[in-house]
Design goal:
The chain is an alpha/beta fold and 184 residues long. The chain has a single domain, classed as 3-Layer(aba) Sandwich (Rossmann fold), CATH 3.40.50.10420. The chain has helices at 5-18, 21-37, 39-42, 60-68, 141-147, and strands spanning 46-48, 72-78, 84-89, 96-98, 104-106, 120-123, 127-129, 134-135, 154-158, 164-165, 179-181. It has a six-stranded mixed beta sheet. Strands 8-7-10 form a three-stranded mixed beta sheet, with helices on one face. The chain is globular.
């Protein structure tokens, strides 16, 4: 019997929540190094990242180091219409505020960035499968956002090894990522 998205989400979120913080941070550093070594990352001028929740792959140091490297860093600001507005940030301490679902996001005043300018999009996910399909938290923000992008945009999912499942159920609105980086 195949598991439903809801069952997979519950199982993986349980593993995320029970993982020791120190172990998660060590694995997050491995994932960061792999992301930074991607040719697509190296040549990107505008990189869209995200602010991680406390049990996900930690993106705090990814955002800070990308800024130090001189990358133009864009983060999503969620709208009440379940949409994403990409906004540029220059400083994680002054340019972010707590948003919907308690996730840090750019302040309203931050400059909007056209999707066409973004070279690489780093996408969160609860789970991914071997075909790069992604299971989010169930609200559809990223599927709607990714659907609007040109087909040739590179999107990368970040995940711990245990977040990779054999096969995810697929709905017509699900948009896969170009590749997934794990700690393995």
């Amino acid at each position: 019997m195949h598991k439903t998205k809801k069952q997979i989400r519950k199982e993986i979120l349980g593993k995320l929540n029970s993982q020791a913080r120190g172990k998660a941070l060590k694995k997050s550093d491995i994932i960061k190094e792999k992301l930074f070594s991607l040719p697509e990352f190296k040549k990107s001028k505008f990189v869209m990242l995200y602010a991680s929740k406390n049990n996900e792959v930690n993106t705090e140091s990814i955002v800070d180091e990308a800024l130090k490297m001189g990358k133009r860093v864009v983060l999503p600001r969620c709208t009440s219409q379940k949409g994403i507005v990409p906004k540029e940030i220059r400083n994680t301490h002054t340019d972010l505020e707590k948003g919907i679902y308690g996730i840090r996001q750019p302040r309203k005043r931050q400059k909007n960035v056209e999707c066409g300018k973004i070279n690489l999009i780093v996408v969160p996910g609860v789970a991914f499968d071997r075909k790069n399909r992604r299971l989010g938290r169930g609200k559809g923000y990223y599927d709607r956002f990714l659907k609007k992008l040109p087909r040739n945009k590179i999107s990368v999912g970040l995940a711990f090894d245990f977040q990779i499942v054999k096969n995810l159920p697929k709905d017509s609105h699900d948009i896969p990522v170009s590749k997934v980086i794990t700690d393995r």
